[in-house]
Write a structure and sequence with these properties.
Elements: H1 11-18, H2 42-48, E1 58-63, E2 102-104, H3 115-127, H4 131-136, H5 138-179, H6 185-190, H7 196-212, H8 217-238, H9 246-249, H10 275-285, E3 302-307, H11 316-328, E4 333-336, H12 346-358, E5 362-366, E6 391-397, E7 419-422, E8 426-430, E9 434-438, H13 441-458, H14 464-473, E10 476-477, E11 481-483, E12 490-492, E13 501-502, H15 505-517
Parallel strand pairs: 1-3, 1-4, 2-3, 4-5, 5-6, 6-7
Antiparallel strand pairs: 8-9, 10-13, 11-12
């Protein structure tokens, strides 16, 4: 699921996540420091490469699309040189008509289910109240029962929180209506509630003001609205087995995995449905020469948009075809800031990863935001136990120092996660000429993609496998004991990732130089 904004489940969670901020808006670009704000060393790298001319590298952003009109992105967009815009003809004969900025493999889809929902619905038809089927395939039936328990639990939780936010919003609206919007702390404390919704809203507002040590109803309403939108989606779409947008919104034969051409050329679907990809794209290649907004790591790079992630879980067919499209149209790096716990056609994705490897294309993937050990739980897609040398799995680090160096939400894994990269409070582009700071391994992954693109632009003779090895070997070791994400326990970073280190651009450049001079 690509939605990485970690919305409030309760007000405490929201406040705990936003109570502190880094000292620098673009902290992820700062030099490495043991004292915090441990960035990638961007400026040092720029100084190292002075007088050298980089070659353009195409980086594909496989995501929910991107705002191709954003002033910080439009100068660094990949534009298909063989296609004539708007003529309705497949000029380059690659099968995709008017694919100017990339391709959209999910058509008009905006919302989709979770993969858990899709797999539960599929197995439910086979096994529910069918003892013969249960007896003939006990292993899969056991899998179904576990899946059923998880699905029903998450479906109930989604309904509970959807109703919770609905009641709170109704209460806030009722209180505002009574006082004409003129509400201060004293007004709320003295308010006599009429009904459950007003009383719950009153308590929420008071708690918010106490924890923030300020009375900011506007900000709280924004948080509540985000929470409501998230659980509205989860209740009505994510865990709704009766909802299936594929037939209506995507013109394909879904179970035909050899089908490559479907969807459309529209890669931007507005601020509600392409904010994630726009943010990811800016981390990689926002214009760094215009002295405003965000600053990408590789401003000389060109970004290609692959729209294959809805609000919900991506589908494996679209993931595989997105990789193939990127490879066939010149991308050297594919950033994939998405993931899910279940898979329907993992072998199709595996074949696409192998295809990318055969064409010397690097794939960079976010490890996930569940605070889980990926060695023990699935996070699709993955590299199939190091089957290919062109895959980097990225966990998230924080701007904090010491034991808090890792993001509290980041997935990890001694076998499955390669390294950590800045992924908390990362400031970048968002649709309609805006900028925001997001959290997630979804942000950590494009930081690594940007580093890889920067290095490759100056050392184009490297292979994808060499570049991966350089990025991993050049990490800065995380010293001391760190808190394991999702836990209060502490350990050494090298015990919960392959390298135990943070991505570092100057180190990678030095090692690239050494590698090619041998």
């Amino acid at each position: 699921m690509k939605r990485i904004n970690i919305y409030i489940i309760t007000l405490c969670i929201a406040l705990g996540a936003t109570a502190q901020n880094p000292n620098d808006t673009l902290w992820h670009l700062l030099p490495y420091s043991k004292k915090g704000n441990a960035g990638i060393g961007y400026q040092e790298a720029v100084e190292m490469m002075k007088g050298k001319k980089p070659q353009p590298i195409i980086v594909a952003i496989a995501d929910d699309g991107m705002d191709i009109h954003h002033p910080d992105l439009k100068s660094n967009l990949w534009k298909n040189p063989l296609e004539i815009e708007g003529n309705g003809i497949d000029d380059d004969q690659n099968g995709y008509i008017d694919d100017i900025y990339g391709w959209n493999f999910i058509g008009e889809t905006t919302y989709d289910n979770m993969e858990l929902t899709r797999q539960y619905a599929r197995l439910n038809k086979i096994y529910e109240l069918k003892p013969e089927a249960q007896a003939s395939n006990p292993k899969e039936y056991t899998t179904y029962l576990k899946m059923k328990d998880k699905f029903l639990k998450q479906k109930r939780e989604a309904k509970l929180y959807f109703e919770f936010f609905q009641i709170i919003n109704e209460g806030v609206e009722s209180i505002e209506k009574k006082y004409g919007g003129n509400i201060d702390k004293t007004t709320i404390e003295n308010h006599k509630s009429k009904g459950k919704s007003e009383e719950m809203a009153k308590r929420m507002i008071i708690r918010y003001s106490k924890m923030t040590k300020s009375f900011d109803l506007t900000t709280m309403k924004k948080d509540l609205d985000e929470g409501f939108k998230q659980y509205d989606y989860m209740h009505n779409y994510a865990y709704n087995t009766n909802f299936d947008p594929r037939t209506e919104h995507v013109d394909d034969e879904y179970y035909n995995l050899t089908e490559r051409v479907y969807g459309n050329n529209q890669v931007y679907y507005g601020k509600d449905f392409s904010s994630h990809g726009t943010h990811v794209a800016g981390i990689v290649a926002a214009d760094g020469t215009n002295n405003f907004g965000a600053k990408g790591i590789c401003s000389s790079c060109k970004i290609m948009s692959i729209r294959n992630v809805p609000n919900g879980d991506e589908r494996d067919k679209d993931v595989a075809n997105g990789i193939r499209y990127a490879v066939n149209n010149g991308a050297k790096i594919v950033n994939m800031s998405f993931g899910k716990g279940y898979s329907d056609f993992s072998l199709a994705v595996k074949e696409a990863i192998g295809y990318a490897a055969s064409k010397d294309v690097l794939l960079v993937h976010a490890a996930g935001n569940d605070g889980k050990n990926n060695d023990k739980s699935d996070n699709f897609p993955y590299d199939f136990q190091d089957a290919y040398p062109n895959w980097i799995e990225v966990g998230a680090s924080s701007w904090r120092s010491g034991s808090k160096a890792l993001a509290t939400f980041s997935n990890y894994g001694k076998t499955e996660v390669d390294l950590f990269s800045p992924g908390v409070d990362i400031y970048s582009t968002t649709p309609e000429n805006h900028y925001e700071a997001y959290d997630g391994t979804s942000m950590a992954s494009p930081v690594v993609s940007g580093v890889a693109a920067f290095v490759w632009s100056y050392y184009p003779d490297l292979s994808a496998a060499q570049l991966k090895e350089i990025i991993l070997k050049s990490t800065v070791p995380i010293k001391g004991r760190v808190r394991i994400p999702g836990s209060k326990r502490k350990t050494r970073a090298h015990k919960i990732s392959k390298t135990g280190g943070l991505v570092n651009l100057p180190n990678a450049l030095h090692l690239a130089e050494e590698t090619l001079s041998k």
